[in-house]
Amino acid sequence: MSKKTILAVAFAIACAYSAPSIAGEHPAEHPTKKQVTVGDVADGIKKHIAEGTKAQGGVFKVKDGDGTLSLTLLKVHDDKLAILGPGNFFACTDLKGEDGNTYDVDFFLTGEPGAMKVTETNVHKVNGKPRYSWKQQDDGTWTKESVSM
To answer: In the chain, count of helices (H) and strands (E)?
Structure first.
């Protein structure tokens, strides 16, 4: 074999062995963001309530009108968790008040899994009696509707 042939074969072998390492620098497809699931929303609201409960002496405090409710988590309504759009979520919970009442509390959250923040908290029902209802509009959005007491 000639010296040129040996060099050409050696070069070809070197290229063949280095190709996978070069290709590894750039994946065939760009990585995508993890899709948020309703499980992530449930984890986000549970984390928020747990952190608030710990910080506030064993109860979760919710401002309600002119007062503040002291609550403990009973349940996260998994069937009412919703992904409203990119980075926007809804969670519904039942919490027991120190006053003996059961409160259905709605939460709106933003962010990514593991780092969700609550942006709005509303007492929706007291002992099953709604303070407001949700109505879906023609454009698909939801709005609060007053309920006669």
So the answer is: 2, 9
Cα distances (Å, whole numbers) of residue 9 to 4, 12, 56, 73, 100? 9, 5, 73, 71, 84
Task: Output the pTM of the full model.
Answer: 0.74
Contacts of 37 (CB under 8 A, 6+ apart): none
**Residue 137 included in any domain:** yes
- Sign of the dihedral defined by the CA atoms of residues 33, 35, 39, 41, in that order: positive
Does a structural domain hold residue 26? no
d(CA 135, CA 48) in angstroms, rounded, equals 27
Host domain of residue 113: 38-143
- Strands (DSSP E) contained in 40-137 are 60-64, 67-76, 82-85, 88-97, 102-110, 117-126, 129-130, 132-136
Confidence of residue 7 (pLDDT cuts 50, 70, 90): very low
- Residue 8: its pLDDT value, please? 47
Number of domains into which the chain is organized:
1
